Amino acid sequence: MRRLFALFLCLFALPASADVFPFETPSGNIDCYVGLSRNSSDITCSIWDRSGPPARPAPADCRVGWGHTFEMGDRGPVRMRCDPGLRNFSQSSQMPYGRTEDFGGITCTSERTGLTCRNRTGHGFFLSRRVQRVY
Question: Which domain of life is it from (predicted)?
Answer without folding.
Answer: Bacteria
